[in-house]
Design brief:
The complex is a heterodimer of chains A (270) and B (667).
Chain A (H helix, E strand, L loop, with lengths): L1 E5 L2 E3 L5 E2 L6 E2 L5 E3 L1 H17 L2 E7 L5 H10 L3 E5 L9 H18 L2 E7 L10 H9 L2 E13 L4 E8 L2 E8 L2 E5 L11 H9 L3 E3 L1 H4 L36 H14 L6
Helix pairs in contact in A: 2-5, 3-4
Chain B lengths: L2 H25 L11 H13 L10 H26 L10 H31 L15 H26 L10 H7 L17 H22 L7 H10 L30 H9 L5 H5 L1 H4 L6 H14 L1 H6 L18 H5 L6 H5 L6 H16 L5 H12 L29 E4 L1 H6 L1 H16 L4 E2 L10 H5 L3 H17 L4 E4 L2 H10 L8 E4 H10 L15 E3 L13 H11 L4 E2 L27 H10 L5 E4 L2 H13 L6 E4 H9 L3
Parallel strand pairs in B: 1-2, 1-3, 3-4, 5-6, 5-7, 7-8
Classes of the chains: A alpha/beta (270), B mainly alpha (667).
Chain lengths: 270, 667
């Protein structure tokens, strides 16, 4: 059985700034990282591999430089890494992206049955949380989102039981394989690559698949296949703060003022 | 020839040689390391530390050991003669003319007495006023072994007097006049019978035989016992001082990264031969244990145990190691003798107090880092807090993971030049703490103000500045350190940096000592040195004596003091600016107690025992200071936290730069 981990290369958003004139991301000199939620997806794939002996394939759609992200996956120990890259894939929204990823997963399944697809719950650049569910829908498999614990996995009976972390509660769900799982950060603590793992990953192959491999209709992929697009991006203006009281000479009075202020704006209730 | 003694001597020698060879051949299993460079300096080191007992004498009780050691050297000659005479009774020192043999036996007589007194003092110490640090988990100060060794020596001395006194009593000693102690002891035989030799009537002869054979038996037994005991150090400590590091042990060797290589130490023979020799040189004196901040605050680390473990592990796995089969006892990660827990390895602050304390130049701390290297690089096994640290340092080149673009924020309140080799003389390498830590930013601004006041031409790298990698290296993540070091050295070279000012002793030591391995040999100066120089040269002139900080106590940062010998400069700065010498901790200068943040501990939780910083704060409070003065951002954080923990928030923490800046502030 095969596990597929879908990962994405994202700009390190803590370092991203928005150009005030053009309203676009200033990407110059900003390093790329593996989407943090995806590192947990990778980790869980590797843990199941360590326990059950499955094969783990990491796939990513992106420009050729996203190879670096797949190298990181190789360094962590995935068996196979596939980069889906083609100019015609460019400009894709979540629908077009899930079309490409779905087709790639189908193709991977031709040689080795895919049992579980792991995705991060969302990416830190787009924050849509749609691609994982999109893949499940198009593959026609079960989807388990926001998973924070794998409780049971029976590869023979092909069943899985997980805990989903929802607002204020947990939900225990059982489902048949194949299944698409999106993960939250509480699921695990990602491993750190060993030095031999890192060095060997530089020698290993990242497979490049383009649309000649996937043979998708160009109307369903890339910009053409995307019913949505970003028309504007901006950072919200933050109002200037205000100084209240005199903390140096009257700390108690100032603290009271602050509490009143917070209560009046109802900022202390949960 | 005396056939019985000769036979016993041969048996003892064979056993001794076999046991010693077994151990020495194990040392040879260690990895290669060049300790044969600069022989003259090594000889000097050996004379100073082994024969001169320099570090032994650093503690008051050391004198007792030194007397024994020097007595041992003299008595080697006496015992050599004893053995030779035992085998060939015709050969004796007494064949030599009196002007030579007389002074020699006089020396033996006096020295034996001194040694006996020292042994009695050592017995008394272990029995009546045993210091805690003589005990460790597996070795107790009142061990059978300890007392056995003392008993061996005491018996040798008593037997020596016993048979010489008997000979004097029997009038058989030509040199009696040269042997005051033996002559005195001869009185105990009632003066003998008065006839010389061959007399069996007075009952002295059986005593002569008894003491002679006692001496012979103990000497031979001691020889056999020597290699299997901690007394082995009399064979290994002298060469260990010869092979000791000629430089301060403030950096770790580079590793070569290539496919197929293994990193750090997993099994004991991954250590170098010198590391293994260290383990056989340990006397278990406990001084490293006594000076270790982790041990003092009840962490699972004991540097003496680390060394002891190497020896016991090597012995336990000897057969497997020699045949190349898998070892039975793991070096790391198990419980019991011969293995180290991972917790112990992660408890080290790399403060270097153990190395400073060791009388025989054992290097404990680097061995801990070697074991960390394996855990981090081969197994990715480390306390979970470090995962973020490593990723932050790798991805954003600072421990907090703050965006590099924020590196210029501290300077928003002042005009700061960008470093340019044509326009600025010094690079002020701010360091991650000086850049991002809100408390330390005040120090950065103070220092920048002082540099401007002194009209020093300086600039910064701004958002191009990168982390020096200190924590990564001390935590054993050499791969990450290697990357950061290469990036920094390349950057400094590309920008034409010739002189660097640092405010952090960790950056300072890393840039100055570690980066030398990467070909960076430029002037790196810590602000303690720079401020002292500027004050001495009159380049900065405080407009008054700073009194508002009250009484100041100065804390030595390990990476400034012990690792780089900068002790007096920061004290001079304080004295000059305040008009008063700073108060001192009980443990100061080379004996200073770490704040707890070195060796990457800054980024780790302190789960066990007491907090190191709180312990140090409490020590400071004993002198009731108004201000604790530091010269390191890590110490700053640890003390700021520490005084809050003990509710002594009225005690201020100041960097020496802030003290100077105070003196420059317009009144």
């Amino acid at each position: 059985m095969q596990i597929v981990a879908c990962i994405k290369q994202v700009p390190d958003t803590t370092q991203v700034q928005i150009d005030p004139v053009t309203n676009t991301l200033v990407r110059e000199g900003i390093p790329f990282i593996v989407n943090p939620y995806d590192t947990h997806a990778l980790e869980e794939s590797l843990r199941l591999r360590d326990k059950f002996g499955f094969n783990v394939t990491a796939i990513s759609m992106g420009p050729p430089n996203a190879e670096a992200t797949l190298r990181k996956a190789l360094a962590l120990g995935v068996d196979r890494a596939v980069l889906l890259t083609d100019r015609v894939f460019g400009g894709a929204d979540t629908l077009a992206t899930s079309n490409v990823l779905t087709e790639a997963i189908r193709k991977l399944g031709e040689t080795d049955e895919v049992g579980i697809i792991f995705c991060g719950k969302q990416t830190i650049d787009g924050d849509t949380a749609q691609v994982g569910p999109g893949i499940a829908t198009r593959l026609g498999c079960t989807q388990l989102t926001l998973v924070d614990k794998i409780l049971e996995l029976d590869p023979i009976k092909k069943r899985i039981k997980v805990s989903r972390k929802l607002e204020g509660r947990h939900e225990i769900v059982e489902a048949p394989l194949p299944v698409m799982i999106t993960v939250v950060r509480e699921l695990n603590r990602p491993r750190y690559p060993t030095v031999p793992g890192r060095l060997e990953s530089m020698e290993r192959e990242v497979e490049f698949w383009n649309n000649q491999t996937l043979k998708l209709d160009e109307q369903s992929i890339g910009l053409k296949g995307s019913p949505t697009w970003v028309s504007k991006i901006f950072s919200p203006q933050r109002d200037k703060g205000e100084m209240i009281g005199d903390g140096v000479h009257d700390p108690v009075g100032t603290a009271n003022l602050l509490i009143d202020k917070l209560l009046s704006k109802d900022l202390l209730s949960i | 020839m005396n056939p019985i003694f000769t036979a016993l001597f041969i048996i003892a020698t064979v056993i001794f040689a076999t046991l010693a060879w077994k151990r020495f051949s194990l040392i040879r299993l260690g990895k290669e390391e060049n300790r044969f460079d600069n022989i003259p300096a090594r000889i000097v080191e050996m004379l100073l530390f082994a024969f001169g007992q320099k570090k032994v004498l650093a503690r008051p009780f050391g004198i007792n050991h030194s007397i024994l050691f020097w007595a041992f050297l003299v008595l080697l000659l006496a015992n050599g003669e004893f053995l030779l005479n035992g085998i060939f009774p015709a050969i004796s020192l007494r064949l030599l003319i009196t002007p030579i043999s007389g002074p020699l036996v006089f020396l033996f007589d006096i020295v034996s007495m001194l040694a006996l007194i020292s042994i009695l003092v050592a017995f008394a110490r272990r029995i009546f006023f045993k210091p805690d640090y003589l005990d460790s988990k597996y070795v107790k100060g009142r061990s059978f072994e300890g007392f056995l060794i003392l008993s061996f020596i005491a018996t040798l001395m008593i037997a020596y007097f016993g048979y010489h006194a008997a000979e004097i009593a029997l009038r058989g000693e030509r040199l009696a006049a040269w042997m005051p102690v033996s002559t005195l002891a001869a009185g105990l035989y009632g003066g003998g019978c008065g006839s010389s030799g061959g007399c069996n009537n007075c009952g002295v002869v059986p005593w002569l035989i008894f003491w002679w054979w006692t001496h012979a038996a103990v000497l031979l037994a001691f020889m056999v016992f020597l290699p299997i005991s901690k007394h082995m150090h009399i064979l290994t400590a002298i060469p260990n001082c010869f092979f000791g590091s000629l430089e301060k042990v403030n950096t770790q060797p580079r590793e070569e990264f290539a496919i197929g290589n293994s990193y750090g130490v997993e099994k004991v023979t991954d250590f170098s031969w010198k590391d293994l020799l260290d383990s056989f040189s340990c006397t278990e004196c406990g001084r490293c244990q006594d000076s270790c901040p982790a041990n003092a605050t009840h962490k699972p680390l004991n540097p003496r145990q680390i060394i002891h473990t190497i020896k016991t592990n090597l012995m336990a796995n000897a057969a497997e190691l020699q045949s190349g089969s898998p070892v039975k006892t793991p070096l790391v990660g198990a419980e019991g003798e011969g293995t180290n827990t991972e917790e112990a390895i992660w408890s080290c602050t790399t403060c270097g107090a153990c190395i400073e304390a060791c009388p025989v130049l054992i290097e404990q701390m680097p061995k801990i880092i070697k074991m960390r290297r394996h855990l981090v690089q081969m197994k990715s096994q480390f306390p979970e807090e470090l995962l973020n640290l490593f990723e932050n340092m790798e991805q954003r080149s600072n421990p907090w993971g703050i965006a590099p673009t924020e590196r210029t924020k501290w300077s928003s309140i002042m005009d700061v030049k960008s470093f340019d080799e044509k326009e600025t003389e010094y690079l002020f390498y701010i360091g991650c703490a000086g850049t991002f830590d809100s408390r330390q930013k005040h120090v950065t601004v103070s220092l920048a103000t002082i540099l401007n006041a002194a009209k020093i031409s300086w600039g910064v790298l701004g958002k191009d500045e990168k982390c020096c990698g200190d924590s990564a290296r001390r935590l054993g993540n050499e791969f990450l350190f290697d990357k950061l070091a290469k990036e920094n050295v390349e950057l400094f070279k590309a920008r034409g940096v010739k002189k660097i000012i640092t405010q952090c002793p960790h950056c300072f030591s890393t840039l100055k000592n570690d980066y030398r391995q990467y070909g960076l040999e430029i002037e790196v100066i810590h602000h303690a040195e720079l401020l002292q120089r500027l004050l001495a040269e009159g380049k900065i002139k405080p407009n008054r004596e700073v009194k508002e900080l009250g009484s100041i106590i100065y804390h030595d940062s390990c990476y400034l003091g012990r690792h780089n010998d900068i002790y007096e400069q920061p004290r001079d700065v304080i004295t000059k600016v305040t008009g008063e010498e700073p108060k001192e901790f009980g443990k100061n200068r080379e004996n200073a107690f770490c704040c707890g943040a070195g060796g990457g501990r800054m980024w780790m939780e302190e789960h066990e025992g007491e907090r190191i910083n709180v312990t140090r704060v409490k020590e400071a409070l004993e002198s009731s200071p108004d201000t604790i003065c530091v010269a390191c951002p890590y110490c700053m954080t640890m003390f700021e936290d520490g005084v809050k923990d003990v509710n002594s928030g009225n005690v201020r923490i100041r960097d020496i730069a802030e003290v100077v800046a105070e003196g420059l502030r317009p009144v």
